[in-house]
């Protein structure tokens, strides 16, 4: 069951654990229904359905983090190549009492960071050159603490598996439309299948998308909260958030559009337009929500 490691010093979040378990249950149920519909409609092609579904699941679970890191330009670096970043990761890992992940840098002016990995053993934390150039050491520490919280809470792995169904739905629809299965089948239900499969695929994609978005927004607030409590400096994380979000407006639109598909991984979302529909279905809570939470934590720490 997903949850915080027993010896990690990151604050446990029962709300996050409950949401992860609920999301995985609903996604699993949706997955069973989806594959069941495909098997019922494509009776003559059930071996192909199972082969594609199984292959995509394995590929998504084992390789999605590597694919995402590669797609975002992450390049692993040694302590000699990036002493400041490695030093920050070392400090946060010592504070959290957790194994050190692999450390990478992405050559991008978009100020951001992300973490991937199915577990702490396969984890990777990455910062962009734009982030390293803009943040002060205590701000960078807050961002790294935020990202490593995702690893400690294991919500990175949950998001990877949860997002699989939407990918599968899209792939199965494309396989059906372009492989000629419908045209070659002599089954009397072929005409129904031509209508049912795209509709079911679309419904599954929308439902899984909304479920993962709801979880994603909460996990970002949880990571902010855990990072602020771990470092004891919520103001530094708030400063980093404000600086990163403010700098997004100065980044060329072309660069932002390249980063947008990976918003669920980023420390702060990249939007190519202020009126973007992505803001309505964002993977992150608003800046105001995040700053308000950090302000409350700062007041609470001040009183204690």
What does this structure look like?
This protein has 304 residues and is mainly alpha-helical. Helix content is 66%, strand content 6%. It has helices at residues 14-41, 46-71, 83-96, 129-134, 137-153, 155-162, 164-179, 181-184, 190-231, 234-248, 253-259, 287-303, and strands at residues 74-76, 102-106, 113-116, 124-128. Strands 1-2-4-3 form a 4-stranded mixed sheet, with helices on both faces. The chain is elongated, with a radius of gyration of 21 Å.
Key traits:
4 strands, mainly alpha, disordered N terminus, 12 helices, 4-stranded mixed sheet
Biggest sheet details:
4 strands, mixed
Let me know the average pLDDT: 81
How much of the sequence is in beta strands? 5-15%
- Sum up the overall morphology in one term: elongated
In DSSP terms (H or I, runs of 4 or more residues), the helix count works out at 12
Quaternary state of this entry equals single chain
Order of helices and strands: HHEHEEEHHHHHHHHH
Residue share in helix: 55-70%
End-to-end separation in angstroms reads 33 Å
Structural class: mainly alpha
- Give the neighbour order of strands across the main sheet: 1-2-4-3
- Rg on CA atoms, Å: 21 Å
Number of strands: 4
Poorly predicted regions are 1-6
Q: How many structural domains does the protein architecture include?
A: 1
Keywords: Cell membrane, Hydrolase, Membrane, Metal-binding, Metalloprotease, Protease, Transmembrane, Transmembrane helix, Zinc
GO biological process, one term: proteolysis
Family: Belongs to the peptidase M48B family.
EC number: 3.4.24.-
